[in-house]
Design a protein that fits this description.
alpha+beta; Butyryl-Coa Dehydrogenase, subunit A, domain 1; Butyryl-CoA Dehydrogenase, subunit A, domain 2; Butyryl-CoA Dehydrogenase, subunit A, domain 3; four-stranded mixed sheet; 51% helix
């Protein structure tokens, strides 16, 4: 990696995780994509490397690394398997939600949820999206009603990552309450909480995606995170900003691999008695990919560093997410084009990358929503 002003710890993180990804993750990525299988062994190995616990304090087994360092780890993994990276940031994020709870909540969940999640033994899911409420979180219909020392949830969620994985410990479900919205911890196996079969997707085949249902689902009162009706603010504000930077990091990784593979192919492939890299149209595609990568890294790094500095970064996160995911989508398309017929075959990574990246411009707020956020933040709405 070129010098982008990263510290020693950040460089070591990227190099270590990339070496692991090349050695352990890449060999089986195509087969996992073909069979839609998730490899728990690989996730546990990531746990042994300390990756799921990077953003957590040492008191719970974490390494207290920077947001940027975790983003570099995500980027490295996503160069070879975007599905695994997706499961990682979704799965490790649940413990962060728990750590923002009260002292009593953290104490209650420490042994059962936090420590295993930080160690890579379990994952979590985030239950936000509904059939009639995607980017418009204000349209959520799932309801939570207080009944004595319990909350009762009724409603449904869709396109939820990780919930059906064998070691998913809980889902954090956003639900409408009497005074706003609440974010609730719903343990897997709770009566009234059920899920449908795995949804068939265009890409990200080895990342589990389900529809969830809550019918008279009762959880203890202390499973409400935060106070009053602040659940939506927890998600829409700092929550979405962070996950958008994570997705930007995944996109950088995938686009970087698309560029490297395309450049290698352009140097080796001969057509009309010339290396195809000597044709101007191929050169233009490679230059556009490289320019997009360089610009995206600056945007992603700025947003991650602002997160580490605890500065407001909603606009910067939206810029990074918008640019990096759209750029990676174009890069994957160019990779397929440069590889030609081979790029259309599932035997080559370009085909998988083309399918996998398509979700990134939709998840965590569509590209259109990112443009609206940016317009609002720069004062264009008046």
């Amino acid at each position: 990696m070129d010098d982008y002003g990263y510290g020693e710890a950040e460089r070591l993180t990227y190099d270590t995780v990339l070496a692991f990804a090349r050695d352990r993750v890449a060999p089986g990525a195509a087969e996992r994509d073909r069979t839609s299988a998730f490899d728990y062994g690989l996730y546990r190995e990531l746990g042994a490397l300390g990756v799921p616990g990077m953003l957590y304090p040492e008191a719970v087994g974490g390494t207290n690394a920077s947001t940027l360092a975790f983003c570099l780890a995500l980027e490295a993994i996503s160069r070879v398997d975007m599905s695994l990276g997706w499961v990682l940031w979704v799965g490790a994020g649940g413990a962060r939600s728990l750590m923002r709870g009260s002292e009593e909540q953290v104490a209650a969940w420490r042994e059962r949820y936090v420590l295993p999640m930080v160690a890579g033994e379990t994952v979590s899911a985030g239950g936000i999206t509904e059939p009639d409420a995607g980017s418009d979180t204000a349209g959520i219909r799932t309801k939570a009603v207080r009944d004595g020392d319990e909350w009762v949830l009724d409603g449904s969620k869709i396109f939820i990552s990780n919930a059906g994985l064998e070691h998913c410990a809980f889902v954090t479900a956003l639900a409408r309450t009497e005074d706003g919205f609440g974010l609730f911890v719903v343990p897997t196996g709770t009566p009234g909480y059920t899920m449908g079969p795995p949804l068939r997707k265009m890409g990200l085949h080895s990342a589990d995606t389900r529809e969830l249902s809550f019918a008279d689902c009762r959880i203890p009162a202390y499973h409400l995170l935060g106070s009053g009706g602040s659940g939506r603010q927890q998600v829409v504000g700092a929550g979405f900003a962070l996950t958008r930077v994570y997705l930007a990091s995944q996109a950088l990784g995938l686009a970087g691999e698309c560029f490297d593979l395309s450049l290698e192919h352009a140097r080796a492939r001969v057509a009309f008695k010339r290396k195809i890299g000597q044709f101007q149209h191929v050169q233009a595609m490679l230059v556009d990919m490289y320019l997009g990568l360089e610009t995206g890294r600056l945007l992603r790094d700025r947003a991650a560093r602002m997160s580490d500095a605890r500065a407001p970064y909603i606009k910067e996160a939206a810029l990074a997410k918008l640019h990096c995911t759209e750029m990676a989508k174009r890069a994957a398309d160019s990779a397929v084009q440069i590889f030609g017929g081979l790029g259309y075959m599932d035997d080559t990574p370009a085909s998988r990358y083309y399918r996998d990246i398509r979700a990134a411009t939709i998840a965590e707020g569509t590209s259109e929503i990112q443009k609206h956020i940016i317009a609002r933040e720069i004062g264009a709405l008046g």
